[in-house]
């Protein structure tokens, strides 16, 4: 397997056009951002003081309070055997957006699936709004930061987060009104308050050492609604949509559009640059990148952590319509959730698996703003109780001897990415998740403004500096629409500069820097820009309406693979109504265990058809996950362009064809599986 930095180095030393588009976005964006930050800091302090007097938000975020109930049980899964299954599942392999992280949750004890080898497991503002209107809007959808705790005496011992206990508590049901639903239970508030300590402050060591108690209620986690549909998630989606329509973001979207277009002209030069259909999709892509940045702004503060679902398609639930936040090769099969973290604090992640265990589940520690993976914990690495619950401790300390459920943070750690990759959309469920900060410095204005993310490497190793930057308590003004928008614009600078690099994964040879011809897929290889423990095969297509790209795929030692289609802007389109992706669970295998997929604009009538969604030009980025470390059987890909009238000559014997009625059933099943993630039952 190649070094995880090899592709990154090659891409950074690539063509001048790629670097130039990044510099253009960076220079213009930096000017806008610093002007915005200056204006924000000049706002009257009295206004901030009034905002800061309101109730604060908890350092506990739960997504385990609600869960999906339309899911069927996996016929090969039994709750009594869950612990042994997850222990025996083979280890393996984003944000591609996988900017980063995954592996095997499928266990060897499960029966193989039929046809498969057995598995190892609104418009922008036109004028500035008044500050009071901004704050009133924010207060309706978000929580204020908690009051800073009073100084205590010096802490000489560590809070024993490894001794977190799971206890029963009264069940919490799905929110009836998400706008008014509480963001944390009383038990979670009590846990956060009881365990909080401050760095570098004197304390009375005679006081009994606090114990963190995390509540997970079995009856609250019985798949009544989607595990993603928490009150906190709904509130943050509302904030993100408001932020994405702020003036700083509106300006940065114009800059982003210019940068994206310049990058595409460079990267797709061999085929004449982006075609008309992709140009039509550019504005929608920029909108999704902006909403993604608005979500990322809300996970800048590691002192007020939350489980936030993003890199998500458009969806409607709980009475709101949420735009898409897809970017950088989002995977149609994957649920992406992120939690902000920092080395100066200690955290506990609690979760629960349901009967429909995902094809692949990972927890990845991401570094800096680029999201490089430093540590991965797979489901097969975890100790999971018989009822499906688990606890993961997170801190700057290494795991204790024999401790499996632990993630170690470094000075540059910023996020934990949790990925659930679903093979059978109609059966498999994302896990319920919650994050709790149990110790660390007080919440602060520095943390609110993303200081620990942008400058954390300079302060995280110094208790004195950490204490100094934490002196100014959280201010309500930092939650205003303008400040959120300014920070989001800054994040768009970072994301915009990355776009050319991600396009180049499909269009450029990483070793030579030369543009590659279309319709040729690379052989599966590791890439630092994606999940660290998966392999990718990348390429772009240029097809006439009467042509098809035939892919022959040998999964090798991969327990899961998927073949999604993207536009030139590295995002998927309407994959819930159109079959623009297929994974190995959805496809039909050949008798020898390989798979033959047909990528085309026109439906050729084969079961393993991957629609381009009407695109004649676009990108394919295949993923191979859940790799068996005990096997040297590497995945492989072959590709050939053929005329549709000659397609039969290039397909293996026994290829399955479908009628129009059978295709309709195939698409209806796909849509039902997608809907199950977001709204399995009516929600109001």
Layout: helices, strands, pairs:
Blueprint: H1 6-12, H2 16-41, H3 45-52, E1 60-62, H4 82-88, H5 95-98, H6 131-141, E2 165-167, H7 186-195, E3 213-215, H8 231-244, H9 247-267, H10 276-280, H11 282-297, E4 308-310, E5 315-317, E6 320-322, E7 334-340, E8 346-352, E9 360-367, E10 372-378, E11 389-395, E12 406-408, E13 413-421, E14 432-439, H12 445-448, H13 451-454, H14 456-459, H15 463-469, H16 481-507, E15 535-542, E16 547-554, E17 558-566, E18 581-583, E19 595-600, E20 609-611, E21 617-627, E22 636-643, H17 660-678
Parallel strand pairs: 2-3, 11-12, 19-20
Antiparallel strand pairs: 1-14, 4-7, 5-6, 7-13, 8-11, 8-14, 9-10, 9-13, 15-21, 16-19, 16-22, 17-18, 17-21
Helix pairs in contact: 2-9, 2-16, 8-11, 8-16, 9-11, 9-16, 11-16
Region (Disordered): 1-23, 44-157
Organism: Mycolicibacterium hippocampi
Biased composition (Low complexity): 44-79, 86-103
Structural overview:
- Mean pLDDT is 76; it is low at 1-20 and 22-224.
- Helix 8 crosses helix 16.
- The protein has a domain at 512-677: Jelly Rolls (Sandwich), CATH 2.60.120.
- The protein has 17 helices and 22 strands.
- It has 684 residues and is of the alpha+beta class.
- The longest helix has 27 residues, at 481-507.
- Strand 5 (315-317) and strand 6 (320-322) form a beta hairpin.
- Helix content is 28%, strand content 19%.
- It has helices spanning 6-12, 16-41, 45-52, 82-88, 95-98, 131-141, 186-195, 231-244, 247-267, 276-280, 282-297, 445-448, 451-454, 456-459, 463-469, 481-507, 660-678, and strands at residues 60-62, 165-167, 213-215, 308-310, 315-317, 320-322, 334-340, 346-352, 360-367, 372-378, 389-395, 406-408, 413-421, 432-439, 535-542, 547-554, 558-566, 581-583, 595-600, 609-611, 617-627, 636-643.
- The strands form six sheets. The chain has a five-stranded mixed beta sheet with strand order 1-14-8-11-12. The chain has a five-stranded antiparallel beta sheet with strand order 4-7-13-9-10. A four-stranded antiparallel beta sheet has the order 15-21-17-18.
